[in-house]
Amino acid sequence: MNPALPVAVDAMGGDEAPAAVVAGALDASRRGVPVTLVGDRARIEPLLPRASGVGLVHAPDVVAMSDEAGSVRRRADTSIRVAMQLVRRGEACGMVSCGHTGAVVVAAALDLGILDGVERPAIATLLPRADGGRLVLLDAGANVDCRPEQLASFAVLGAAYAELLGVADPRVGLLSIGEEDTKGNMQVRASLPLLRELPLRVVGNVEPGAAMMGGCDVLVCDGFVGNVLLKAAEGAVGVVVQLLREEISRSPGARLGAWLLAGALRRFRRRVAWDVQGGALLLGTDGVVVVGHGRANPRAVGAAIELAARSAHKGLVPVLRSKLGAGVPSV
Amino acid sequence: MNPALPVAVDAMGGDEAPAAVVAGALDASRRGVPVTLVGDRARIEPLLPRASGVGLVHAPDVVAMSDEAGSVRRRADTSIRVAMQLVRRGEACGMVSCGHTGAVVVAAALDLGILDGVERPAIATLLPRADGGRLVLLDAGANVDCRPEQLASFAVLGAAYAELLGVADPRVGLLSIGEEDTKGNMQVRASLPLLRELPLRVVGNVEPGAAMMGGCDVLVCDGFVGNVLLKAAEGAVGVVVQLLREEISRSPGARLGAWLLAGALRRFRRRVAWDVQGGALLLGTDGVVVVGHGRANPRAVGAAIELAARSAHKGLVPVLRSKLGAGVPSV
Questions:
Q1: ipTM of the complex
Q2: pTM value?
Q3: From B129, which residue of chain A is nearest by alpha-carbon distance?
Q4: Hey, of B213, B224, B276, which one would you mutate to test binding to chain A, going by the most A CBs within 10 A of its CB?
Q5: Nearest in space to B240 (alpha carbons), one of A326, A243, A31
Q6: B271 chain-A contacts, CB cut-off 8 A
Q7: What is the pLDDT of residue A331?
Q8: Do B264 and A242 touch (CB under 8 A)?
Q9: How many C-beta atoms surround the C-beta of residue A318 within 10 A?
Q10: A144 touches chain B (CB under 8 A)
Q11: For position B147, what pLDDT does the model report?
């Protein structure tokens, strides 16, 4: 992958598009990542300073959050599809969208294709663990009502991704509500035997808390359940921060304490801020795709763009293809 | 319900049983809640001080965490079943167990019976919300692979419970991964129309984060998904506390700040500590049942016992029965 290739960025996706996306693109560009924005020229151009170095490709159509995901199949002029086409034609090293996740998944499968050996592409998110490591969670929302074969396929993709992140012989867990093999719903009980047949280091059923404490490196689940897990974790941290802020505001001593703690709190926020990495990788398509948060601010957009560039640079797709071609990740 | 009746407590359930359970029972008893411990007399008696005021009923059998839940059907001598029988015979106002949740649910349905109009009993947990309110989450783990009719039944139980907690006309949400009616898995999409038919204030699909921020009072879900949500929230808070502690230990200024913040942190922990309420109510059986956390410490056990006594005192079962008899909660 040519590292000088830009990242194609869907300028129209996200709650504050295009402003937040353009600001994030400018940010990434200033840090040396070439970017091509894709979307409504008339709305984007006024936001781009002269000689910004950021490219712009016009796309007249936009996928709204209320649209059916499948509608992108017949809408080749949407910013999502045009950005995918840039990747497909080798004019971009990867794409980023903070828009309609379902539409991004459909468009990626359609325009980029699915790697041999993959049942369905999955969204992989990294969560901070208490032991300082990172947890690869997948699927975080691309597929609901998954069959056991899909979960097994996610295990292969997740393990390959963890290896790419530098984890040797990653421990793969199946998300459940108890450690015993008999715990879980029908989907989990049917999937565990399939996972155990893979030549991966499968540690069995893992509960959310145990995984976050460091019990595994890859946590495999259905996209509905994974998305609930992710958003429950985000929500709980939000509640904690909010209530802590209220407690601090109640006493002068506590306010002084908070001031003294400010540096630690800042470093801490950097470690747990779910928005700092900016996006999640879609694994299993023949091209780098990063799905950003709908509420992404410019910083998160910039981080998502860097994640796409870094993943392309590290050869995410060729690495996944070789792992899948070998049937399984090298362990 | 006679308020002088004791709470029957399964002394053998939980990771540190019977020691942690006995300590929690003594604690509750000192605070004026009559308690009868149920379990292996030879192991419990040495832990009970003379004239403690805590009763003891012998039960020779114990359900192990690895046992099948259904095995309690033919094991009437287990501490869980004997405690249920005390409630059934009117010798206890409610029961608490920190043991095998599945076995507690089976035993409760068997010994106490299920209220008319209830499909399946559900575990209801309270979560702190960012707006200071409390979120009733159910089912938090009693039933997996729920049919839409079960989720509708949970909505009725949860709304009635929220009213008992003092919330007028509670807002009922269906847990999903997007607000639109079309978002979610097959189970959610099939259930929402049923919920909307109930004469409850159904606000539609609600995401975990939105619910925790205060978007609804009752959050209805399948027990597998609800348990994942609960444990993901607990896990995320655990990670935050752990990483914050590490950051604080790094600098003397931060340590002084933490010392000044100690009071605020203590109050804050009391508000978000998921263990302080000690347990979750099983709703829908003809008797008060509280399911405690397997890792419950004495304080959490004491809180679970108080929750059972308070629920019996407030007439939880008659209130639920009248709401169910009326077809729906009074709104």
A1: 0.89
A2: 0.90
A3: A239
A4: B224
A5: A243
A6: 243, 247
A7: 34
A8: no
A9: 10
A10: yes
A11: 96
List, in order, residues 6 or more apart from B23 with CB less than 8 Å away: B47, B298, B301
Instruction: Identify residue B59 by its one-letter amino acid code.
Output: A
Whether chain A has a CB inside 8 Å of the CB on B70: the answer is: no
The answer to whether the CB of A221 falls within 8 A of the CB of A174 is yes
B130 close contact with A: CB closer than 8 A: yes
Strand order in the sheet with A122-128: A55-58, A35-39, A7-10, A94-97, A288-292, A279-283, A122-128, A134-138, A218-220, A171-175, A201-206
Rounded to a whole number, what is the distance in Å from the CA of B264 to chain A's nearest CA? 5
| Size (chain B), residues | 331
A276 touches chain B (CB under 8 A): no
User: Alpha-carbon distance A9 to A35, whole Å?
Assistant: 7
Dist. CA A280–CA A291, nearest whole Å? 5
Q: Among all residues of chain B, which has the CA nearest to that of A129? A: B239
Q: What tens digit of pLDDT does each residue of A221-241 get?
A: 999 999 999 999 888 888 877
- Chain A residues with CB-CB distance to B230 below 8 A: 232
d(CA B78, CA B117): 29
Of A207, A236, A263, the CB nearest to B236: A236
Q: In whole angstroms, what is the distance from residue A233 CA to residue A254 CA?
A: 26
Amino acid at B161: Y
| Number of Cβ within a 10 Å radius of residue B108 | 29
- The alpha helices in A65-147, defined as continuous H runs, are 79-88, 101-111
